[in-house]
């Protein structure tokens, strides 16, 4: 396992502008090979998908390559990869299709820790059909989302359990495999928000037991495009509203209108880029992705310990609690100062952090309101960390 930070950073042209980026949880910089692939596709003769002429066949090849790339990233079947404009849009698509089979008195389970994109679509779908919403509560003292919180609310009428693979606010990683198993034992489906986790961890949706797993490419060096993966047979059981002449096969049944072929080319390039983070990784692309993401996770883990230790040592800085072993994301507050003001002052020093609730709406309703978030990505350095700590100390 090898991680050469100078080589890795060299693949991100935007770093040359000199900003310090702790905003990866909101969206990472795009890797150079990704923007190259997008530009090359826009310059090429690419028609809409058809088999009767070469530019149309090229479009089909781009789509197939992107499905295979996402499948290699998360350990899924290419035939089960559905693309959409965002994780939010895809979750609404799935929620509408699933809720068409729900009845009054059925139950859905959501958590207070999740990004609202994995809460509100399910709450609203339940309200439309008269289903009951059950809430899995996190522990505000530790930031943990224990499996017991789900065990208490999953029952024989549960139809869907939604849970995050990692909190975008504090990095907490719930035990998704156990939670998904609880859902399955009750005859329910599980929908896992992998938007934050996929950027930081080697991912295996089969090991997680997720019936649906959603991820956004712009959180892992790619373009603004998302994918939701499930077993092809799971997709085949759902009938979304669609145009009559549009494809009825899986996965095309769930992709409305013409896909963005240039962005799909960027998705493939992003996965290829991630597979090369560890220069010594060998084997299939899937094997190289697993090795490279493990190397990146180890690198950012060491850096994150340095960041959190440094933040705790600064008078007036309070970290929101989170269990160890999560993704490298921390939220904090500076005494006597609004979070937006802290983020603005850091931004004036070219240090990019976010302030607010970052759409972790239910979490921040219960933890005192907005905070500042610093999220590491594999192009961050120890110098970045020291620059942030020095700015806060001053």
UniProtKB/TrEMBL annotation:
It comes from the Bacteria. Residues 21-388 form the Aminotransferase class V domain. InterPro entries: Aminotrans_V_dom, Cys_dSase-rel, PyrdxlP-dep_Trfase, PyrdxlP-dep_Trfase_major, PyrdxlP-dep_Trfase_small. SUPFAM superfamilies: PLP-dependent transferases. PANTHER family: CYSTEINE DESULFURASE, PYRIDOXAL PHOSPHATE (PLP)-DEPENDENT ASPARTATE AMINOTRANSFERASE SUPERFAMILY. NCBIfam families: am_tr_V_VC1184. This is Cysteine desulfurase-like protein. It comes from Virgisporangium aliadipatigenens.
